[in-house]
Amino acid sequence: MGTGGIAWSVLAAVTVIGLVVIVRTRWLQSRTLAKCVALSVLLHGVLAVVCALVGGFAPASRGRNEEGRMSITVALAEQPVDAPAVAEDSSPSHTEPAAAQDARMAPAAATDVPAIPLLPAEGEVAVAPVDHVPLLDAAPAESQVAEPSPDGGVEGADRADAPSHRVPNTYADRVGARRATAAAARGGSEATERAVQSALAWLAAAQAADGRWNAAEHGAGGQRAVRGNHQPGVGAKSDHGVTGLALLAFLGAGNTHRDGPHAAVVERGIRFLVGRQRSDGSLAGDAEFFAALYCHGMATIAVTECQVMTGDDALRQPLVRAVAHTLAMQHPHTGGWRYAAGDRGDTSQCGWQVMVLASARNTGMSGFEVAESRARGFLQSVSSGAAGGLAAYRPGERPSMAMTAEALYCRLLLGMPAGQPAATEALAMIAAAPPAAANYNAYTWYYATLASFHAGGPQWERWNLHLQSALLPLQRRESSPLQGSWDPDPVWGGHGGRVYSTALSAMTLEVYYRHLPMHQREPRMAAATPSSP
In the structure, what pLDDT confidence band is assigned to residue 151 with cuts at 50, 70 and 90? Predict the structure, then answer.
């Protein structure tokens, strides 16, 4: 018998003998409380000694070289890599997000490795950088325009409303005249575009001097209970999250830190996010435990889109580290994400991080197949309904419209064809609760709009009509400092504040041109159809 076995045997024997003595002598019948405290202290002391003998006095990892969960390979590519669709999403759903965990890795400079492995190992992120362009602190080009390029993207030419970098096809409809054309063809209008531009004007005025949007200053962290969850102050320190949302609204309308009427606003915001990245790659800033991983997701998607739209090499390594953090936070068995590494996951958080991976593919990163497969498994675990199209916040709970919409959008991102029965079932639930001004919920409307738009079909046209009728009149139009914003909604608005509600609502109205509709593109990969529960 080893030292550990002997120690545990001795402890067990002493405990039994002691209990017998105590019972037979009736020792505890006087001064019971004091004696129980003394016994508790003694017992914990004995346990500490035994544990030290069994496990050693120092952590097992002390003095050893820790190995991370992933490696990163960086390679040169002659042409930018256009991945399938990107996805960004924002909304502090259900009880807010996550803590951080160190994701140790070995990022290499773009010149260190000659090529990308054809088949990245499990957990490995392969990065194919785009052509070199001026760094983040370079001045935006003044006289460029967007013209179609051979692969469907847009390149700079000679007019003033265009980007200084070839914009991949994924984001091409955001740029120049293509934005108005796409909006008109897919259900937008002059009224929706006026609302977007008015929202951006308010967001620009609300930006702090250091580039952030101050969450608490604009109403985040309100003392509000949602569906029985009361977490006082959650969201008050979510500056990185609402900054990511605000930047996504600007990026969705074609602005970057190099181009567009709000280039200076975007530049300040991107500098703020990247300049305060944590050592573990997280972009959550000072967010509370329940908000951290949400904030990381929002900020990461914003930086990713900015990098893809400009090709700015200065953003490559911060993105590699941020995506690695997302991968490190995924549960290895359930495939979910929640607040901390090792949490089994919830649908709201899962959606955020799936969108991180989808947007990261547009930078040329790869090696996400295992993570995406696990995410599909998690979505399956929260599914219900005859076709498996409905979704709950967590396994075993009742499905909701918000989670069903988010899960459908994620499944589309992960390759599920829009014609699958599961998609039809999800869309039916969404259609049964169209937007109404009396039930304003920026988070639910945002995801339901994304799911409806990317699935396509007649249901999209009906949803879009209800959306515009409900959302446009809610925007503040009076001549005041709040003009162009949306009041915080009664559901999650107390967590995210006015910046959250305004940015989400603006992105909802940018849906017509933010991304190519997924139902019009070839699926990137085959995805298993959800089975009936």
Answer: very low
Element (H, E) at 449: helix 442-455
Which residue matches tokens 């550990």?
4
Using CA atoms of 166, 169, 173, 177 in order, give the dihedral in degrees to the nearest 10. 50
| Closest listed residue to residue 516, CA positions, set 79, 83, 82, 86 | 86
Note the residue count of the chain.
Answer: 533
Q: Pick from 495, 445, 443: which is nearest to 470 by CA?
A: 445
51-55, 197-201, 385-389, 404-408: which range is least confident on average? 51-55
Helices 316-328 and 347-361, packing angle to 10 deg: 150
- Exposed/middle/buried for residue 503 (C-beta within 10 Å: 0-12, 13-18, 19+): buried
Alpha helix stretches (DSSP H) within 177-221: 177-186, 190-206
CA-based end-to-end distance of the chain: 49
Beta strand pairing status for 383-384 and 229-230? unpaired
Q: Tokens standing for 12?
A: 């067990």
Question: CA-to-CA distance for 301 and 282, rounded, in angstroms?
Answer: 12
Amino acid at 259: D
Query: Per the structure block, which two tokens stand in for 137?
Result: 């602190």
Q: What is the mean pLDDT of the chain?
A: 78
Closest to 291 in 3D by CA, of 508, 497, 86: 497
- The whole-angstrom separation of Cα 252 and Cα 275 is 22
* pLDDT single digits (tens) 342-386: 999 999 999 999 999 999 999 999 999 999 999 999 999 999 999
CA distance 295 to 91: 9
**CA separation, residue 443 to residues 405, 422, 488, 525 (Å):** 10, 22, 11, 28
- What are the φ/ψ torsions at residue 74 (nearest 5 degrees)? -115, 135
Cα–Cα distances in Å, from 309 out to 119, 140, 143, 193? 27, 13, 17, 21
Token output for 457? 């079909």
Output the DSSP codes for 248-305: HHHHHTT--SSSSTTHHHHHHHHHHHHHT--TTS---TT--TTTHHHHHHHHHHHHHH
Contacts of 81 (CB under 8 A, 6+ apart): 128, 130, 362, 363, 364
Burial track 102-141 (b if 16+ CB lie within 10 A, e otherwise): bbbbebbebeebeebeeebeebbbbbbbbeeebebeeebb
Cα dihedral 379, 380, 384, 387, rounded to 10, equals 110
- Specify the pTM: 0.72
Give Cα 478 distance to the centre of its chain.
33
Q: What span, in angstroms and rounded, lies between the C-alpha atoms of 21 and 26?
A: 8
Q: Give tens-digit pLDDT for 65-76.
A: 333 333 333 333
Residue 464: partners with Cβ closer than 8 Å, 6 or more residues away: 187, 449, 452, 453
How far is the C-alpha of 334 from the C-alpha of 522, rounded, in Å?
28
